[in-house]
Amino acid sequence: MKHREINIIRKKGRPRDVRVAIAYPSIYEVATSSLAHQMLYFYINSEDNFLGERYVLEKLDQTGDNILSIESGTPLKNNEIIIFSVHYEPDYANIVKMLRDSGIELLSSKRTEHIVVVGGPPVIANPEPLSEIADILVIGEIEPIFPKLLKIYLEYRDDKKNFLDSLSPKEGFYVPSQEPKEINFVYSPSLPLEFHPIAQIQSLDSKHTWMRSTMIEAMRGCFRRCKFCLEGTIFQPKRDRPLSQIKEIAVKGREYNRTNSIVLYSLSFFDHEEADEILDFLVDEKFVFSVPSMRVETLNEDRLEVIAKGGQKTLTIAPETASHKLGLLIGKPFVGDMIENIAVLAKKKGFKSLKMYFMIGLPSEETEDINAIISFVKKLAEKSGFKSEKQLKITVNPFIPKPHTPFELYPLDDIKDLKKKILLMKRSLCGIAEIREYDPRWARVQTTLNRGGKELTKTIILWAEYGGGLGSWRKALKESGVKEEKYLSNMNEKVPWHIVKLH
User: Which one, of 485, 303, 315, lies nearest residue 412 by Cα?
Assistant: First the structure.
């Protein structure tokens, strides 16, 4: 499928240039909205001797079709280096699909021609499930890793073994063939502008008008240390992008990207030391902007007014629980009165809807904790005026234990219990709020993938072969002889991800 885009790079490659596939194991819309994917694309093409093109799936159930680049229709297998950026464990099956459908050997031990590189938060957390598929697993951030990777590749281009042997686990490169005892996570002390694309891929297709915006990573990391949060655990310390950079990206981005819309990415925007100055600037320059991630404790009437002036119609917050006991346990205290007051103010300031995220299946959770969420939502709806399925939207996520977090060894709640809790919330809040949930069956898949080791290689390959869905997953587990239950219960301290040393 051809895509109408602006800011696409059509680099005139020379015969000796290294062809690099910047692959995203999901559909075009997801890939294009990933700032990491775009960072890799523009950085690699800024380097002499390298030519990068993008590869995505045309549809999630795509199978058997040769994977071709968006830019020129070049087959995936015609690249020397294939880089996958992955943000969601179930996309591991899509990595296998893309390699398989391109005729590329799936196992790194048998692969002679291509270098397969995989990175992203779930890989940093636990690279082992992909360690027999990837040649290199990136344990770190883009800025310190990729300049070194490309430089070393040019030195050893014609000798794959020497190239791989030259990558040090102390510098964030997990090369499974080296069998390292540990790999250090590497991070960038600052957020240099040269790695943040200003001109960004923008789709001109009419069905993608909602995607048109300049993405700005305002901040990376978080100091709040919620005990369930993977990204807050990994991406330390908190680093603010300077106001001067944000101004430059915004102003030039309006011209290059042909859009007045900006999305400010962070884990908690108002923890940025210059957050208010950023928003004041955007308002003064008449940008339309959205701030997707905010802690309710950091909000006040003035900030809500500025956000409303920026055109944001939905206020999104994540209480996670309505239980004081669980709030203290997870490191995110429940502040019900504060949420109610902010919701009332948001309604007055013209916000059209309120969206909240809650988590179920937390350690030591009881039925009364679910009832507390229901009671709180009812009270909030009545007090704030956000009280219809159009105005009040609730997303319910099962607690999924993540490697390296304080909750890494806790079990996943029983799937039947999770379904009962979701059903109770839906019945109790029918007509008051729209309830959407993350399917507990996928929570099982995700938990298994983020807690497993090399023994999941066969499972992942079979899963991809059978289609990559839930039924395919069960079939692959059975055929590979893997017992899912051992990954869903309490884990002992000998776990595969301890090979990664974060900080």
Answer: 485
DSSP state of 429: T
CB 57 within 8 A of CB 98: yes
Count of CA atoms in the C-beta half-sphere (13 A) of 61 = 3
Tokens of 497: 């991800």
Q: How many domains does the chain have?
A: 2
pTM: 0.97
| Residue 321, both tokens | 């629980």
Q: Is residue 18 part of a domain?
A: yes
351 and 416 within one domain: yes
- Spans of the chain, pLDDT less than 50: none
Decide which of 417, 438, 459 is a domain's last residue.
438
pLDDT digits (tens, 9 = 90+) for 276-296: 999 999 999 999 999 998 999
Angle at 332 between CA 331 and CA 334, to 5 degrees: 135
39-68: burial string, b at 16+ Cβ within 10 Å, e else: bbbbbbbebeebbbbbbbbeebebeeeebb
Contacts of 305 (CB under 8 A, 6+ apart): 349
Same domain as 393, residue 256: yes
Last residue of a domain, one of 438, 462, 487: 438
Structure confidence by residue, pLDDT tens digits, 123-147: 999 999 999 999 999 999 999 999 9
